[in-house]
What we know:
alpha+beta; globular; single chain; 7-stranded mixed beta sheet; Nucleoside Triphosphate Pyrophosphohydrolase
Amino acid sequence: MSEVATPRPAATVVVLRAGAAGGAPEVLMVRRNRGASFMADAYVFPGGRVDEADGLGQVAFANAAVRELFEEAALRIPATALVEFANWITPSAEPKRFDAHFFVTSLAPGDTQVAKHDAAETVDALWATPAALLERYQAGQLKLPPPTICNLEDLAPHATVDEALEWARKRPFTAILPKLVPSGTTLAIVLPWDREYLSLPGDGVSIDPNHPLARGRSRFVLEEGRWWGRKVE
């Protein structure tokens, strides 16, 4: 049996700004390089692994989030403006794993910073509402990793930036460790509230289906290069 890789600490930043003409908040997405070793060609929130220079403990995650946001999207945000709201850990079956802490923040009205991709790790940057991004994903127009899909779905109902930030501050915080398993001729990412989760191979801690973090879908199936949500009845 091969040795299970230890997850590397990582941080991800969801940057919000007010939508045009009072519309729903928009979120910044960057597109990963096609040659990337992790989430290649997918649209994701800016982020990356925690470096030694970022410090220790929880402060290191926030510092890494600030640094990665500047490196990947040329935006400067103080660490004090970050609200941590999610934690996803790569399945134990993956050779490259991350313990990713997700933060949300916002650009203040009148902020003149312009988001730019770095043309190395990221090859595009765009602003769009969570609902619009999910529509494009459903239409097969862009690739989104499962954690990104779930977080966009959580953000989509909020009508304002302040509402989204307030939701993030109050959200229950529990690490989500999916399992990556064969599913017929393809693969499935099974979430901790799936009824088959405990019986499947791999590391993980189950989450009660009634927990606030649980959602309708309980797994994602890989089809034609994209992950599609499924619910096991």
